[in-house]
Please model this.
Amino acid sequence: MADRSVTIDTPAKINLFLKILGKRPDGYHEIYSLVQTVDLYDTLTISDTTGGTELISAATTVPLDSSNIIWKAVELLRRQTGFTQGIRVNLTKRIPVGAGLGGGSSDAAATLKGVTQLLDLNLSRQQLQQLGATLGSDVPFFFSTGSAIISGRGEMVEEVKIASDYNVLLVVPDFAISTADAYGRVKINLTNSSPKPTFIREKISAELLPLLDQIGNDFEGLVTDGHPAVASCMQFLREAGARVVALSGSGSAFFGLFERTPDPSLATMISGRFGWQVFSLCPVKLA
Model:
């Protein structure tokens, strides 16, 4: 029986815009994206045990072995600090997998934070952020305040203050998209590079939403060309009053931003018409 435990609710993210600026010499793509955390959470309960690393979850969508990024985060900390205690992570998975919502990266960041807190490891937030970058490009973002411009391959994080008085209707189709596959295919649609947008910080929602609508997500055409139902549902959101409709990450999830809380019947209509998951969400801050 574990003597101590730490429980962390860790959120999903959406990309309010995402531009691909070109291909880097190291094979990665240079990106520029405004990212925001939303109130859809995975929950991790991290306990110390007698030995080894153990991952438990009722979810059937994630591996429970050393290929999981949570497991990798534990072992990375073990190598970095030399702790010998066993670690058990119990994962309650609510963030859909393969949807561009950063669930795995969020879980990895929460694991680094939780194990550090549980074992009182002498590592700063900056050190954990740097370790997180070795696990995945999105992981460092989840050490921010929840609103940030990410650049480079995603590991460079600049916190920003932006409006949060809008509502998010998130749609998750019944198919997943591999981020690696999406980046491998998006080069077909890139000639040289996408222009870097001019983004002025601290905008109120009346200024922010029209700007986001202009910038968009460079993966959108790739997804809508391959999945016409996504394009149809995006148009449905626009007709329902969404000020912004955009893809999150490389998909498959997409969202509409509304100035007011959308009528619950809208989510019911989308779910009934397309058979997809729909979440009514709000932006949240990270501690």
